[in-house]
Amino acid sequence: MANQIKTFGMSRMTIGSCSDFHTKVNDCITATTPAALHITEKATAYSAASELLASIVNRERAFVATATLAEADDVRDRASGVIGQVVNAYLTSPVAEKKAAATLLDAKMSPYRGIRKHEYTKQTAETRGMLAMLDAEAEAVAALGLTEEVEAVREANAAFDTEFLKKTEEMSSRMTQSDVKSEDAVNEANALYQDIVQTVNAYAIVQPSDEINTFIASVNGLVGTYSSIAGSASKGGSASGGDTPALEPEE
């Protein structure tokens, strides 16, 4: 009787177990060679589907740039706060020059009060406007000794902008992954695997070889192991592929 790849209840596997199973089957295909198994084209598609499935087992949720964004935002918030506090303090200064500078800046900064509580990107744009205004009133800024604080805001805002662009690059690199539905990726890998099983089982009957028999033995070892993990039972194989339930994805 011809050797056959057994089937098992794949629907009971978690998405992680499913991915690991397909990865190991791909390793067996590589070791035997697709040509020896008569699945050259199928193996290419199956390998790609397995890699895609592996990429979504643990999707990246956090962004590397998030922490540095928060740090840059904290710096510009604190520097802006110092500017506002100093301007407010000098409104009652007995030194005429400083009081005049504070009165001027207090009026000029009125549109920017509360921007520290605004959404990140809105605050970035508003801070640019505030910096342009402060640059135009550089004499008053210098009179109150705030030149360094203004530069600190400028540097922090620029740093925030840079880190924000890095975050958008991270987001862009994840778009393909995030657009993939787990169920679709699982079903695609399973379907391609079953197609390969059907082909290999058929050749095991009509054109058996040592390579095919060795491959079948290796895959059946995996089937036995993963069926135990899934709490399923392996069944005798057939050229038609046998038990092919869709896997229930687990996020």
From TrEMBL:
Domain of life: Bacteria
Chain segments carrying region Disordered: 232-251
One Pfam family named in its UniProt record: DUF6261
Name this polypeptide is given: Cell surface protein
Species name: Phocaeicola intestinalis
